[in-house]
Every structure is written in structure tokens, then in C-alpha cells.
Amino acid sequence: MGYKYQIVFLGSINNIADEINTLFRERLKELNLKADFYQVINSSQVANEYKGNQPAFVLYFGNQDGNFEDVGIVQTLLNEGNIVLPIFYDSFKNEIPTVLSNQNGLKYEPQQQDKIVNLILESFGKLRNTRKVFISYKRDESSSVAIQLYEALEKNNFDVFLDTHSIKQGEPFQDELWHRMADCDVIVLLNTPKFLESEWCEKEIAEAGVKQIGVLQLVWPNNSLARMAEVCFPQQLLSVDFQEEIYNSKDTSKLTTSALNNIIQKVESIRARNLAARQDNLITEFLSIARKNGKAVTIQPERFITEELPKNKRRIFIPSVGIPQSTDYNQSSELKKEIKEYSVDEVYLIYDDVRIREKWLKHLEYLNAYLDVKTIKKQQFDLWLQKN
Q: At residue 229, does pLDDT exceed 80?
């Protein structure tokens, strides 16, 4: 197999690298990606195994004694434009060599392993770079915890939707709320005692089901799990998960640091699994409709769909979870370079247009008129395939 994604481990490698590699392989299975397309390379293998014309993500493990290894290799990989993630334990300045002083490092903690693996997948375009979370809560029961979660998730590089913080004045509130939910990766639902009594909270649960968005349901102490049809990951909170065990105040209740870190770790993990499920749903529906219309379509190991055209040509269809962005267009265009055995004639992004605001749908239609990568709405799969 020629084309591969390369994960390079450098520096003071320890058992953490093995744990990250194991978790990475597990995530590939969850995303239905073939492990054969991914190669792990250490410093002794760089000279013979590393290929500069193929994508790479580099993890550099710092040294607490300041004994820096593989500095020359790091400089070479940086010069070739590779992403290098420095990992340190206490002090970036003391544990990471000067050549990486301009890189944004990550302080290692066990709960960061999911984040590290997701960063690798994002860099390869296997997870989208936008990291969007929607907080669903009842204002008069859990405002203080919702704001605490908003701040903690933002600090961990998530783009968080919280109604009191995220909708500009003058925007149509409900339209924007559904639009933002359609584009999120995970919903964090604060299941307080009267959550389901709120009309809007109940509607948000229903919308999550329609869009098949994974929900991390945080169940308050002495409260019961809310039944829901969509993918749900429940977590029962105890009184000890709250500072001073105060959990029934909308203004002063706060989660403990350990509970907060645990929630963030779960959001990282759920995000990848849910994106895979939503991508599979798009793929399955498109394949079914395409075959009904007599199209010769095949799902490829890298999770895009190909259709055979005359004269050894192909067109490809790439599932886009959430709302298509400019980066999706760019990555889809770049995919042509990876498919060397066939000539790619046309590239399309397929996406679910339910609850996306009309102004954004018009923007995508405008882009279709000018870019070589086009979009196809899920609601129009059948009509489009009949005409094309």
C-alpha cells in the first residue's frame, strides 16, 4: 500500500506513547477506518520509513531532566511543514527543546489521551477541525454549572454553544439555536429535576434525535435518567461531584475539578464516536438511494463514496457532518491528490440540511456556482441522483 498517514513518536518516549497508539487504533475501529492506512514511526525508523510527500503528525515527548533527544530530526520535520505537538509534564520551558519553543504544547495528564488522539485524527482530516458542543439546560435550575462547563470546554478548545452567551442580539433566537445544534458534535444535557418540564428543553431532546447527535446526559443527584431515542451516554452525578455538595442552586452550584475533568474527557471520546455514527448514516442513505437509481457506487476504506463513470473516470461523494465549511471544500479538493489510481472527474460533499438556516443554505448554493467541489443536500439525494 503506497499512501499512508504517518504518526511519528520522538523525544523521551515512554509507555504513554504505547497507550496513545493503542487508543488511536481503537478510535480507527470506531470510525471504520482501516489501520493499514496508518503507520507509526519512531526516531530509529525515520530515515528509512518516513516519507516527506505524505501527511505526518509528530508527537515530541519532553524530558524532565532537560536531556533532549531527536532535535535534528524535529528540525527537519518542521522544515517540511509537519505538525509537531510537544508534550510536557511540568514545565514546557525546561522539558522541551528550543527548536519547538514556538509550538503550542500540551501539558500531559491521563485524561488528555483522548484529546491527543483526536488532534491526530483532525490533522489528517478524519475528524473535522471544528469541535462544537451544545449545552442544553434549564436556566432556573443549573445556570451556574452551565456557565462553568462553558468556560471549561472553551478552555479545552471546544466551540461551545450556550444560549445566554452565543446568540447575537438581533438574530432570530430559535432559528439560530436549531442551526447551531445541527452543527454540533455533542450535546451536554444537564438533567436537573424539572428539566423535562421545560417546553424548549424537551424540544431540544427531540431535535437531537432527528439529527442523531450524541448526548452526554449529566443526571443530577436524586434524579432519574431521561429516556431518549437518540444516542445517549448517561452519567449519574453524586452530591460529592459538586463543590461543598451543593447541587440544587442555579446560582452557586459548581462541579468539582475532578468531575469537570471527567466530563471533558467523556465529551472528547463521545465526539469521535458520534461523528462516525452520523457519517455512517449519511453514507448508508446515499448508497441506498444511489443503488436504487442504478448507480455503480462503492464505499471506500477511507469513508468516501466513489461512482464509476465512462472512460475510467470517477466522481466521489464525501460525507460532511454538520454544516459544510470552507475547510471541507479544501480538504475535499485535496483528496484528488490522494487518489492516484483513478482520474477524479467530480467531487461532491453530501450533508444533512435539516434545521440549517436558509441564509447558510443560500450561501452554499452560491458556492456551488463557483467552486469545483459541489454540495448535495440529504433531502435532495433522490432527485439529484435521478437527474445526474
A: no
